Amino acid sequence: MPEQARYDVIGKDYNDTRGPDERIVKLLVDCLDLPTGSKVIDIGAGTGNYTKIIAELGHFVTAVEPSAAMISKACKHKNIEWKKSAAENIPLPDTTFDAAYCTLSMHHFSNLEKSLTEIFRVLKPEGKFVAFTADPGRSAEGFWMPRYFGPIYDRIRKVFPTTQQLVDKIKAVSQDNSIEIIPFPLPYDIQDGFFCSSWRYPEMYFNPAFRQGISHFQLADQAYVQEMLNNLRQDIDSGVWDRNYGDTRSRNLFECGYYFVSATKQQGALM
Predict the structure, then answer these.
(1) pLDDT for the residue numbered 118
(2) Which residues of the chain have pLDDT under 50?
(3) pLDDT at res. 12
(4) Where are the alpha helices (DSSP H) in 123-162?
(5) 270 in a domain, yes or no?
(6) What is the pTM of this model?
(7) Is 269 within the bounds of a domain?
C-alpha cells in the first residue's frame, strides 16, 4: 500500500486513540508564548486535536495536512482554516505567520530541509517555531521497546534525525543560535496514543485499535508486526518480560526520547 494511502487508513479512526495530552499542550503553549489573536500555522495537523486547542486560546490557525482522510475527521472551529498540502510546498505567502508548530509530524516530511525552509519562509521575522518530536537515541538504557519492535525501531532511526542534526538544520534556515531543547519524559498516563505512549503497559500493543492510530505500525510489514507481537506475548505470558523489565511498571515517567525544540526566525534568515 502506498504510504499516503496508509495515512488515509490511519485517519479513519485516528481520533479514537490520539487525543491531546494536557502536558504536551501546556509545553506547546508555553513555548509559543503568543499574544491573543496571533496568526499560527500547524504543519502536519492530522485531525487537529492540538490545532483546536490553539484556536480556542483565541489564535487564528491555518492547519496544513496532506491526508484527505485526516481532514475529513478534522476538528471544526471558527478560528481554523484547513489547507490540504504537504510541508514541502506550503501554498501561502512569505512572512505570513507569527508562529508555526508541529506535533509528531516532522518524521512524515519527505524532505526535512525543504519543509523547514518552507516553514521559516512563511514565518514573520521574530516568528517562533516549536516542534514536538523524538530522537530514539535519547531513550533510556534498557528500554524494552527496541528489543521487541526492532524492525520498527530500525525504520524510526532512519526517519527521525538526531537532536543535533535537527538543531543544525533549523539553525541553517532560522539563523537562530540559541535554539532550545526541552526533554519530555513520557508520563505513564499520557492521553495521546503515539508509538511509545504505552511504555508502562506492553499489553496495550496487542490492541488493533491502539495500533491503528500509530503510523509506525501501519507502515511496517504486517507479517513482521504479528511476529513481533507474538514474541512479546510469549515473553509476557512466560514471565520473561517482567523478569527483565518489570520495574518499568512502577515508574511514573520514562525517557523514551521525546522532546520539544524551539527556535525564532532571525532578521537575517532567508525568506
Answers:
(1) 97
(2) 1-3, 5-6, 11
(3) 53
(4) 145-148, 150-159
(5) no
(6) 0.92
(7) no
Is 154 among the domain residues? Answer: yes
Residue 78 to residue 82: CA distance in whole angstroms: 11
In terms of Cβ atoms closer than 10 Å to its own Cβ (0-12, 13-18, 19+), residue 196 is buried
Q: What's the number of domains the chain is made of?
A: 1
d(Cα 198, Cα 173) in Å, to the nearest integer? Answer: 35
Domain that holds residue 82: 3-264
220: number of Cβ within 10 Å? 19
- Which SS3 state, helix, strand or coil, does residue 174 take? helix
3-state secondary structure of 270: coil
Alpha-carbon dihedral sign for residues 116, 121, 122, 126? positive
Task: List own/partner pairs for 212-217 with CB under 8 A and 24 or more apart.
Answer: 212/9, 212/10, 212/12, 212/13, 212/14, 212/16, 212/17, 213/10, 213/13, 213/14, 213/16, 213/17, 213/18, 214/10, 215/6, 215/7, 215/10, 215/108, 216/152, 216/155, 216/156, 217/152
Q: What was the pLDDT predicted at 156?
A: 92
State the CATH number of the domain containing residue 181: 3.40.50.150
Q: List CB contacts of 235: < 8 A, sequence separation 6 or more.
A: 148, 241, 244
pLDDT score for 2: 45
pLDDT digits (tens, 9 = 90+) for 226-256: 999 999 999 999 999 999 999 999 999 999 9
**Hey, what amino acid is at 7?**
Y
Q: Report the alpha-carbon distance of residue 260 to residue 138 in Å, rounded.
A: 13
DSSP secondary structure letters along 68-122: HHHHHT----TTEEEEE--TTS--S-TT-EEEEEEES-GGG-S-HHHHHHHHHHH
Q: Residue 37: inside a domain, yes or no?
A: yes
